[in-house]
Design a protein that fits this description.
199 residues, alpha+beta, eleven-stranded antiparallel β-sheet, 11 strands, disordered N terminus
């Protein structure tokens, strides 16, 4: 009976989209969503980011392409000013600045901050933007799910992550808005466009 219920949930996630029908068991729907989203090999996203750190504020545009473990993130100001590009994987990352100088490191957050002054949680964001916890880092506290089994609140890497306004992207639903907070840093992301490419 449990197997049959699980198959029904998978069919709902794959066909109807979780916003169409509330789940009788949000936790079961979440497990099915997590499995499906975790198998996404390729995706592209573009959007707008605001970052507040103390008295400093940045308004940025971001284009993110993910291919398995490899990411390519292009960050620019509202008018295309001061671009920076991060390209890397789990082990190494390179930053290309506006003058095409290249800097390498193992930590994308530190590399971005050291050369642009921008602090953005790149490692976790790769998963949070999909509505997932980072599988490589244990989350603390409880996951908060909505009635459709979608993640809405997460505590991870000392960040509080709020996800809202899920939108249909192919047969999936992905967050349109994220708010990420830690100490005096608040990062807000609004996704303008999602593209899924079969892996």
């Amino acid at each position: 009976m449990k197997l049959l219920a699980g198959l029904v949930v998978l069919l709902l996630v794959g066909c109807a989209g979780p916003a169409s029908i509330k789940s009788a068991d949000p936790q079961q729907a979440w497990q099915a969503r997590k499995l499906t989203l975790g198998q996404l090999a390729e995706w592209r996203m573009s959007g707008r980011v605001s970052i507040v750190r103390g008295s400093e504020v940045w308004y940025l545009n971001v284009r993110w392409s993910q291919h398995n473990a490899n990411y390519d993130i292009y960050i620019s100001g509202p008018l295309g000013t001061a671009p920076a590009r991060l390209r890397g994987d789990y082990e190494q990352v390179a930053l290309y600045d506006a003058d095409q100088r290249v800097y390498t490191a193992t930590n994308p957050e530190r590399l971005l901050y050291d050369h642009t002054g921008i602090y953005m949680p790149v490692s976790g964001l790769r998963y949070w933007v999909l509505g997932l916890p980072d599988p490589g880092d244990n989350h603390t506290g409880s996951l908060v799910l909505d009635d459709y089994g979608r993640l809405t609140t997460l505590q991870q890497q000392d960040w509080q992550v709020l996800m809202s306004d899920y939108t249909d992207v192919g047969h999936l639903q992905l967050p349109e808005r994220l708010e990420i907070r830690r100490n005096d840093v608040t990062v807000k992301l609004v996704v303008d466009d999602w593209r899924l490419t079969p892996g």
